[in-house]
Amino acid sequence: MDKSKINLLVVDDERGLCAGLQEALRREGYVVDAAHDAATAMRLVSERLYNLVLTDIKMPDMSGLQLLREARRKARDTQFILMTAYGTVESAVEAMKEGAYDYLSKPIDLHRLRALVMKALEFQSVVAENAELRLRLQKRSEPSLLLGHSESMRAVTRLADEVARSEVTVLIEGESGTGKEIVARTLHLKSPRADRPFISVNCAALPEQLLEAELFGHVKGAFTGAVMDKPGRFQLADGGTLFLDEIGDLSPKGQGDLLRVLEDGTFRMVGGTKLMRVDVRVVAATNKNLQEAVKLGRFREDLLYRLQIVPILLPPLRERAEDIPLLVDSFLEHFTAKHKRPRKTMAADALQLCQRFPWPGNVRQLRNTIEGLVITTKGTTVRVPDLPAFLVAHDRTTPAFAVRPGMTVAEVEKLLIRQTLTHVTANREEAARRLGISRRALQYKLKEYGLLHDGEPPDPETPASE
Prior knowledge:
Layout: E1 7-11, H1 15-27, E2 31-35, H2 38-47, E3 52-56, H3 64-74, E4 79-84, H4 89-97, E5 102-105, H5 110-141, H6 151-164, E6 170-173, H7 180-189, E7 198-202, H8 208-216, H9 233-236, E8 241-245, H10 252-264, E9 266-268, E10 275-277, E11 281-286, H11 290-295, H12 301-307, E12 310-313, H13 324-338, E13 345-346, H14 348-356, H15 362-376, E14 381-382, H16 389-397, H17 409-424, H18 428-435, H19 439-448
Parallel strand pairs: 1-2, 1-3, 3-4, 4-5, 6-11, 6-12, 7-8, 8-11, 13-14
Antiparallel strand pairs: 9-10
C-alpha cells in the first residue's frame, strides 16, 4: 500500500486535538486534511475523494453520524472511524449500523488509531476487489453482447466508462437485440450505486391504466383490488438505478408523469396524499427514433431533452461485422460450458458466411444461433453444412458488397478493404493479393482509414506514404 496516495480527513471542533491527529497520521506517510466543523468537512468531501474520514461524533452544527450519512451519499466507498468522549455501547452500535468501520474513545490512543486506520484501509481494498469480482463473475455468468474491437464499439465502451460514475440521465438508442439493457446494467455495476437495486421496467408491456401504479405504487383502497399498500418501481429502485426500456412506447400521460419526477424527484402514490421523494438514477432505452416521434407529436420534446443528457447509440451488428469472430468465440466458449459439451470452434468459411449475413436480430440473434449450433453440431468444429438454412440461403442470393450513389472514392475504398478483411479473408497477405495492392500499401491504408485495432502496431516495413 502506497501511503502517499491515501487521502485522510480529520474532523474535530477541538483544534488542538485535530492538529495533533493530523500530524500523527502525516508522520505515517498519509496525505491528511483537517476540518473543524461538519460544513467544512462536507465541502472537502465534495471536492476530493477520501479513503477514510476520522470524525468526532459530538459537534455543534452536525453530529459525526449525520456527517457520515451525508458524506456517504457522495462517496459510497469512503470508510469512517468515529471518535467520542461519550463512548457507550449504544453509540458504537449506532455508528456500525450507519456504516462506520469502527469507533475510538477519547482520549485517543495513537497506537490503536494507527492500527485501526490500517485495518479500515485494508477493508476498503477488499471491498473494492469484491466489486471488481462481481463484475467479472457477471461477465462469466452471461456472455456479453458488447464485445468488439470495432471503432464503433470502442466508442460505446469509452462513453459508458465516462458516464458510469456520474449521476446524469442516459438514453440508450439502438435496434432491438443490440444490447441496450446490457449497457444499462454495465452503467449500474460501474457506478457508485452498484450495491443498490437495479430495477427494470418494460414501458411497452404496461397498459396505460396500470402504468402509474406500477411506477409510483398505490395505497390501500386506491382502486378495486388494491387491498394493501404496494410500492412502485421508483421506491424499489431507491438508491439505485431505474431502467426504463422501450421508453418510446410510453403513453402521453405516462410521459407527463415521468417528466415531473425527473424534474424534482418527487411523486405521490396512486390514491395517496403524501409527497414521496426517492434518490434514483434513470437510464432509458428505445429502438425508436424519438426525434421523429417528437415531430409527429407522439413524444414530448421536453421529456426527450431531459432523458437525452447523455445519448449512447449502439450500432447494429451488420455495421461491425469485424466483431463477429470475437462474439462467436465468446458464445461458443460460454454455451459449451453451460450445456456441458466439448469445446467447439468455427471453420473459417463458416465464420465468413456469418460475417456476410446482415443479422436483423443483431447480437441477440447471433447469440441464439450459436447456442443452437452448440447443441446440434456433432463434431468439435462448426462447418458450413452445420449452419442454419437461412444463413446459407442468404449467402447464395445476396452480393457481399454494394456501393451507394454519392459515396466518395475514399469511402468506397475504405468499405472495400473492410469488407474484404471481414467477409472474404482476415489474412492480410491474401487480402492484399485479392485487392491487387501490396501488403505494405494495405497496411498504410488500414492506418489511414482507422481500421487498425487499439494497440495494434503497424507493420515495421510500412512506409510513411505510398
